[in-house]
Write the structure tokens for this entry.
Amino acid sequence: MIITIFYYLLVACVVALLGWNLVKSRKWQEEVLYVIVLLPFVLRLLRLK
Amino acid sequence: MSAPVVRKIVIIALGGVLAGFAGADFYRGRHRREPVVVGPSVAEVKTLAEYFPPLLGTVNDLNIYVLEGKKPGGTFLVLGGSHPEEPAGRLAAWILAENGEMEAGRLFVVLSACRSGTTVTRPSGAYPADYTIPTPWGGQTFRMGDRWANPLDQWPDPEVYIHYPTRQQLAYMDIRNLNRAWPGRPNGTLTEKTTYAFIKLIEKEKVDVVIDLHEAELQYPVISTIVVHQKGLDLAAMVSMILTDDEFKMGMEKSPVELRGLSHREIGDHTDAIPLLFESPEPFLDATRGRTDAKLLLEGKDEFVVKAGKRGLLFEKIDEKGWPIDIRVGRHTSAILETLDVWTTDHPDKPVIMTHVPKYAEVIARGTGTFLRDPSKADPKTVHYE
């Protein structure tokens, strides 16, 4: 259970980092890429997939 | 508001829409309710947590349908859904729970042995979320499921799965595989706790025979066969011979002593019960398959698997007719009925006699859906949900 909690915290960190990169990005292609990469992490955080 | 900010908001909103649709689909798949209209012999519906309370409230606190005979006798346990992506096992168990009438003995039937695994499909496998069996009253939809428990219920996987208690090293994802987690342990993972609970059930209810229903890809050598622990060789050999002579080819294989974690090995080693595992052919599972959809799952037709067969790469025959679900379900129901017959002949003091369950030819002739009961027309007290 403790390891599972750590993994969810790791996922949250990745989401935060990707989100920060998305905010700082200047190219629309990169922004689309960040959003696509974010999807599975967000779905896992929401415990949907 | 600057143009880049507007652009970012639009892109994030589009991502949100995608996540919303995908999330809703995953949520529906995980929470779809599957009705079971229990038959007249179901005296009680127990839950697995009754045998191991720490499972209470978890996704694997699953239903156990107890069919009681008019006369005392032996006790059988049938496990459907150890691997939920092998639907013939679940459907055959469904037919037992909804139609079986016990003359003697007791039958415990489980429809979703790895219930967690029924709530997910294979990541990146492009699996259908569900499938529908046509019935005289329309159709009944079932969750597709996966071979392994849902990572939402047990995560992360280790680099290597070390089986308890043998410490044999197995593939990492098989830590979520119910049929690699026997005999389980009380303080293990959800999957190990589930098999531990089944062991407690087998001990407490003094189960004589456990039948674990599976399906296999045609490229896998263990197919169209009974895998049996050494203490059940006589029983399985007789069942295999009678089925092959009367209905369809059914092999028999002795459970390897060095292959750990499987029901046919660990139940035999850790309890007094005789474990048998039945395999029917499922082209949907073959690596060389084409489009992986519900049609392939139910019809079992695939041109690429047929080509593999023509090149001698398969361990079971296949042609353009494929392996439809009715044939696969019928194999399981007939194999179960034959096992009960042989057991009862060999153990007249502990008979287990069941009627009103269709055999192979009848399931093929009338279709699996004919034996699924309409929950909307049933007494609500007899309707349960998986």
Summary: Helices of chain A lie at 2-24, 28-45. Chain A has a mean pLDDT of 95. Chain A touches chain B at residues 3-4, 7, 22-23, 25-26, 28, 31-32, 35-36, 38-39, 42-43, 46-49 (CB under 8 Å). Chain A has two helices and no strands.
